[in-house]
Structures are given as structure tokens and as C-alpha cells.
Design goal:
The protein is built from 15 helices and twelve strands. The protein is an alpha/beta fold. The strands form three sheets. A five-stranded mixed β-sheet has the order 1-7-4-2-3, with helices on both faces. A five-stranded mixed β-sheet has the order 8-12-11-9-10, with helices on both faces. α4 packs across α5. The protein is globular.
């Protein structure tokens, strides 16, 4: 049995800097209530819930949802690095599509600390040990935080292979800021220019400035997924559905190819995207709007090629010709993306769902992509998974 799955409600709260947000359980409850109001249902209609977060003790999902209601439903906690939110969405969609449930809630939240990401458990092997070994061998730079070395190293590999200039990454960050100006939920809403980005303090001289990296962020977002029969029975909106979805994890090429782009998930992204295109019967040329995982400007550039938005080696031309923004081939990250909207790890995938659902409804306000009918979501977690989701109006 395979049912059509609709996104009938979405909710999101404004993203904030660490220390400036409510505690995780309050943020989560606010996002859930907003999604339920948007869907037009009460919490007791929800049959299952999938809750994603990275930094928190076990069963934080229950703590967040008990503040909304205690109905005894199954609550599944999900942790899959930066792809956590979309992994929870992936599981929820499977539950509805299979007929196991007709109404499922998905929640993602994160209460982060300032500064670079760090390991919490230092008395056991880290899941990134293999990634670190490849990074040490290929790029060195041991004085730079690891996440910056991973994605900066991938950007450097693209620069060396294709002659990509540093200002290509600066143009991506400037574009993100222009989009975020129109997003009241984004963390950074000040527009910056390409030159502002280049003039920002260098994190890795010649490779990355501070403005090319996303900030640690606190926030929450949620979605309600329902079957077609449930939507009809309860007279719920069914104008946006998940047309296809794929989740991939690493293959040997991640570590064996001696390629920093593959280390940070290029092959995972390409494989997941190709699966989704095949499932939906469309190609990248049919997309109107994309929310992709721009944890660093470097990863946005690489992902253009992995998703097939432009040819391999063609990202600089794609950017310089404005094909990644309004008036171009496809609008990427109209929300401002992780670079400007912020990146609360567990919430990111659901924030992307929030944005694309509103785009396909035509309710995105000043950042609306005119005539948006087909949308793609790309959420990547290093060492975790890549989840690609296609929505259709």
C-alpha cells in the first residue's frame, strides 16, 4: 500500500543566536503549535511524532511535545547530524505512505552553544575519525576548526580543479543576504555585498572568510504530514505533496577518492538527487525553487553541480550569470539559506520544508518565487546522510 503524502501544516519560529532563545522544549512547542494551527487540527489528531535534534540528552523530543499534549502516541527521537530534520521528515513520510499512520507530526529543534561545533563525548572513538584522517592528509591546516577544514577544503579542491575564484563564494553569500532581507524569521537580515564578504576577517586565507560560514543558531520548525484520505475526511488543505524522497549515506568513494568534495558528501547528494528525479519523473531543469544545504558558501557551490543545476565545473558561470536567483534558471535558498537564516542543526530540514511549502502555496510574501510549482530540498549531514525531498503543488 502506498499513499500520497501531503504537507498540510508547517510552523517555524524566528531563529536566534545562542543565548538569545528560549530553551529547546519551549521553542519546539511553539513551532508545533504553529504547525497545528496552520493545519487546522488539534494535537490529539496526531498519531505519531518524529523529533530531531543533535545537541541534547535522550528523549528531549518527549520533553518538547509533552508541553503540547500527552496523548500516549509514539514519539521517535532522531539524531543524524545536520540532516536530522530531514531524516525525521523521511521517517514520517514513510509512516504515512505505508499506511501505518494517517497524521504524523515532524519537529526539529536545536539549542546551540556559541563557537565552532565540538564533540561532547571525548572518552570514545569519534564518528568523524575517518573524515579527520582524510582531511589531515589532503589539506592539513590543523589550527582551523574541523568543520571549516572539511568544507573549506572541498571549496579549495573545486578552485584547484576548475579555476573557481574566491569571489564566487562571496557572490553566494551576498545572494543569501539579499534573499534574507525578506525573511522575518531569518537570523541575519542585513544585506551584504560581494566586497563585504571578501573584506570580512579571513578564517583560511585565500579560501574562506568569516561571512562564508553559517552561524551557530537556535530555533525550531515543524510540519504535519497527512494521507489523502485523512485530508479529505477532515477537509484539510492538500495543495502541497511530497512527490519523491531519497536518503543516502556514504559509499567507499567518500574516503577512497582522495577528494575533499566527495568527503563532504558530493556523491551522496548526486545519488539522492538522481533517485528523486527518477521517482518524480522530472529533471533539474523542471525545478522552480531549491532550498539546499549551504552550511558554507563552498558547499552551496558544490551542491549546484551535485544536484545537476549546472554541469560539473560550471558553478562559477551559473553564479555569475545570475541563474541561482530571481530572474534566473532556479531560485536557490529564497529563505536566505543557512548562511543568513541560520543553522540550528535539528531544525534545518524542517525550516526548509516550511519555506518550500509556503513557496508552493504562493504565500511566501516578498520572497515569493513567481509561479513556483516544483521544489527541491537538499539537507546534508556530514557522517550522517543526505536527504533530498521533492515537493509539488
Amino acid at each position: 500500500m502506498s499513499q500520497k503524502v501531503f504537507v498540510t501544516g508547517v510552523g517555524m519560529i524566528p531563529f536566534a543566536k545562542p543565548g538569545a532563545s528560549a530553551p529547546y522544549h519551549e521553542m519546539g512547542a511553539l513551532a508545533v503549535r504553529a504547525a497545528l494551527i496552520d493545519a487546522g487540527i488539534a494535537y490529539d489528531s496526531v498519531e505519531q511524532a518524529y523529533v530531531g535534534y543533535v545537541y541534547g540528552d535522550s528523549t528531549c523530543g518527549q520533553k518538547a511535545l509533552y508541553g503540547v499534549g500527552m496523548t500516549g502516541i509514539p514519539i521517535v527521537n532522531v539524531n543524524n547530524n545536520c540532516s536530522t530534520g530531514s531524516t525525521a521528515l523521511y521517517l514520517a513520510r514513510q509512516a504515512v505512505q505505508s499506511g501505518a499512520a494517517d497524521c504524523v507530526l515532524v519537529l526539529g529543534f536545536e539549542q546551540m552553544s556559541p563557537g565552532a561545533l565540538a564533540s561532547v563525548f571525548n572518552d570514545r572513538p569519534a564518528p568523524f575519525d575517518d573524515f579527520d584522517a582524510v582531511t589531515d592528509r589532503l589539506v592539513g591546516q590543523a589550527d582551523i576548526p574541523l568543520a571549516l577544514r572539511y568544507f573549506g577544503g572541498a571549496g579549495l579542491a573545486h578552485m584547484e580543479k576548475y579555476g573557481t575564484p574566491l569571489n564566487a563564494f562571496a557572490r553566494i553569500r551576498a545572494k543569501a543576504s539579499r534573499h534574507a532581507v525578506n525573511n522575518p524569521l531569518a537570523l541575519f537580515r542585513k544585506e551584504v555585498t560581494e566586497q563585504d564578504v571578501l573584506d570580512a576577517p579571513a578564517i583560511w586565507p585565500g579560501v574562506m572568510t568569516r561571512l562564508m560560514a553559517c552561524p551557530p543558531t537556535c530555533g525550531a520548525a515543524a510540519a504535519v504530514l497527512v494521507s489523502e484520505s485523512f485530508a479529505k475526511k477532515h477537509n484539510l488543505r492538500a495543495d502541497v505533496h511530497i512527490a519523491a524522497q531519497a536518503m543516502t549515506t556514504d559509499r567507499p568513494s567518500t574516503f577512497d577518492a582522495d577528494d575533499m568534495m566527495r568527503l563532504v558528501g558530493y556523491d551522496m547528494s548526486r545519488e539522492a538527487a538522481n533517485k528523486v528525479y527518477a521517482q518524480a519523473g522530472v529533471g533539474p531543469e523542471d525545478l522552480d525553487v531549491v532550498e539546499l544545504h549551504d552550511c558554507f558558501a563552498h558547499n552551496e557551490l558544490i551542491t549546484y553541480e551535485a544536484l545537476g543545476l549546472c554541469p560539473e565545473g560550471g558553478a562559477d558561470k551559473f553564479i555569475s550569470e545570475g541563474d541561482n536567483t530571481y530572474g534566473g534558471q532556479v531560485v536557490t535558498n529564497p529563505s536566505g539559506g543557512l548562511l543568513s537564516k541560520g543553522h540550528p542543526l535539528g531544525a534545518t530540514g524542517l525550516a526548509q520544508c516550511f519555506e518550500l511549502t509556503n513557496q508552493l502555496r504562493g504565500s511566501a510574501g516578498a520572497r515569493q518565487v513567481e509561479g513556483a510549482r516544483v521544489a527541491l530540498q537538499h539537507n546534508l549531514g556530514l557522517g550522517g546522510a543526505c536527504v533530498v525531498t521533492m515537493y509539488r503543488a
